[in-house]
């Protein structure tokens, strides 16, 4: 449309100037003010259009959160405040949309009125010229017909420009996302990777190892103390290490560093002597399996959710094994067995059931390294005992780091690391730490009271 209309307008103008150049100039006169107006409004319009799009984003966030958190909202009687937030955001958005419409109306007003006015003027001037005998009536009719033929192309070009402006802001928003720097894939540390064979064979380098790791969240203020500092920890091959510490000491953060969900600020983490930044993310995440405190399930079947832990390689047998290890055999008794769809976010299952499926997902691929962030927190005492018994078998064949709170879980591990204020305060067996560390004894006794 832009092309066809532009060509039509240009040829029309040439024809009119050839027919009667004075009248042609009268018709062309509004072009300058129209362009000035368009230029003036363009920036303001793109600003408003962008604001409207951002506000639509905010509004949909509120809707999404309200729908997902509907139980909390009902449970705490927050529906009124949620509705108010929705109303306020809608009102703001409505205001912005109206401002947008007003701007558009002004542009249209100018674009539509000025050419009409010019045609009127040309008609009057032309008639005078015909009366004076300086112009033939036929030429005037031909001239005006040409002018009228140009009306729709001129009108529509304004509309097209407004639309392309909107498209431009939407495109800008799209490319903001697409141009986000992708996570580096460790190809820059080829040198480190090249030294692997030697490092791998040397003693004490195997297993999962933290070397002077320091971490602060990228969005933290620069003067805030790091969440984790001077972490030196060695989980030997085949060993399982429990991570114990009060809430907020950085346990979850530490576990997230292993599959590179966050990048260490300084220091390094090695798996069997290989720096994790030196291996492709896909390989790393195949080596390391994770299960987090908050078990996340997707709207798919139970089987698909579990097999997500070993894409492509695992089949029926592995699925059954993983379900039995995680004591998630309840899956077989669901209406369609492991083919049963779990509701959105797994909401049709109980917390304990979800946690056991997440655990099954972590073990299904028989990972070399297993990182579990308090995977037993939502289990009742009997199920927990059963899962622990099963976990004992899994832990025997992998190298594992498990965040634990209860003594019974801690006892599954060969050694325990006590983390305190973002530092490793002590490493030893459960009994050693009970004797030597008051903080550890305190943490464990508290857990004993409310856990058992
Ligand atoms: N995404 C985040 N951004 C900034 N700070 C965070 C983030 N997640 C956790 N923290 C902070 O890091 C500290 C450690 O948190 P976390 O690792 O979850 O502790 P734990 O699992 O031991 O309870 C806390 O002080 C917490 O406020
Ligand atoms: Mg945590």
Which features does this protein show?
4-stranded antiparallel sheet, 6-stranded mixed sheet, 10 strands, 58% helix, binds magnesium ion, 452 residues, ABC transporter transmembrane region fold, 2 domains, binds adenosine-5'-diphosphate, alpha/beta, Rossmann fold, 12% strand
Tell me the helix content: 55-70%
Q: Summarize model confidence as the mean pLDDT.
A: 85
The topology string of helices and strands comes to HHHHHHHHHEEEHEEHEHHHEHEHEEHH
Task: Report the major sheet.
Answer: 6 strands, mixed
Query: Which structural category do the helix and sheet elements fall into?
Result: alpha/beta
Strand content: 5-15%
By DSSP, the count of extended strands is 10
Distance, first to last CA: 75 Å
Number of helices: 18
Unreliable stretches (pLDDT < 50, length at least 5) are: 187-202, 448-452
Q: Would you give the CATH topology of the largest domain? A: Rossmann fold
CATH architecture assignment name of the largest domain? 3-Layer(aba) Sandwich
Rg computed from alpha carbons, rounded to a whole number of angstroms: 35 Å
Overall, the morphology is elongated
Ligand list: adenosine-5'-diphosphate, magnesium ion
Q: Write the CATH homologous superfamily of the largest domain.
A: P-loop containing nucleotide triphosphate hydrolases
Strand order within the widest sheet? Answer: 6-7-8-3-9-10
Count of discrete structural domains: 2
- CATH secondary-structure class of the largest domain: Alpha Beta
